[in-house]
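ARCHIVE CARD
Drawer: 12
Card no.: 0347
Subject: one protein chain, sequence and derived structure
Cross-reference: see card 0346
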Amino acid sequence: MSLSQRMQTLTGGGSDGWDVFIKARKMIAAGTAVTELTIGEHDIRTAAPILQDMHRSAMGGHTGYAMVPGTDALRDMVAARTTERTGVPTTRDNVLITPGGQAALFAAHAAACDPGDTALYLDPYYATYPGTIRGVSAVPQAIATRAEDAFQPRAADIAAHAEGARSLLINSPNNPTGTVYSRATLEGIAQVCVDHDLWLISDEVYDTQVWEGAHLSPRALPGMAERTLVIGSMSKSHAMTGSRCGWIIGPEEVIAHLITFATHTTYGVPGFIQDASVFALGQGPAFEAEVAAPFLRRRAIAQRVLGAQNTIGLIPAQGAMYLMLDIRATGMSGDDFANALLDRHHIAVMPGESFGSAAAGHVRVAMTIDDAGFETALRTLAGFAEARARAA
């Protein structure tokens, strides 16, 4: 018996991008102390009041099957928040609650693409994007962005690949680069989508982590509400990564079909988690800013530390919980640099190549440890880069 080609080709026949992370975890399991700057996991845990509300709901009996589209209370809360933040009228009929943002990405591509369709995405990209597209039997096609543009996509580059494609996946604020797409960038993307009749899948899970500029949902642009599927999540905004609660926002007809899809796949999200999400969202923007505050502080630390040296280039970190560092002056690839840094100093970062060829010669640093430890790790990383550059 053989597995389906879909299962055997999810990573495209190569690495899934997590090799350094897995190596670091094996070192930790063997007893080696490793400073992990790899994944987007908050160093704070889910706030106690959210967990207390989750416990209250579970003990109150909300442990059976919840309605597949999501509870009315959570769908209404997400819709109201979206209306307030974007100005686009949104109701519960525009919202499907999903088991996290990853399930939402999969469902959105299942809605947009038939087997064999081309699905576009931007490089650098979050590591699961191409596998998600292959998972619905579509064909992933990367469109490179440029470090010299701070990884802002060019509409002309997207248009050059758009003929015959069915969808385009974007992510702003961006993981891994920290770039926040400007209005001009998003207007250019929107025009390409209209001109080539593309579905736009907009991953906005970092919308509460904006340090420069402003977050603009492309669903708010003229002519885009009917062709945009927005991905959201409680994971990053409320430090609820393990709770697996996300959503898709889109046209009513699309959401109706996605509810049917969810009935045959995930069958919904536990009710007690949805109740806790209602509670968390009810804490308002001040709580979201509190969750985001450590990353803003650490961004300032990075600007200060890296501003004092000339080997590493810091891509402007406008949002999200990551830094993209240009280490090409060392003469090393991102893979070689990350592995050598881990072996020599037991500091784990993600190679830029984990996120696509456009990030070659870079590494991604997650700002997810305490301030003092973060500064120490950055200084060590910078010293390591300077020594390698001198030896190059």
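Annotation on reverse: The mean pLDDT is 96. The CA atoms of residues 39 and 366 lie 6 Å apart.
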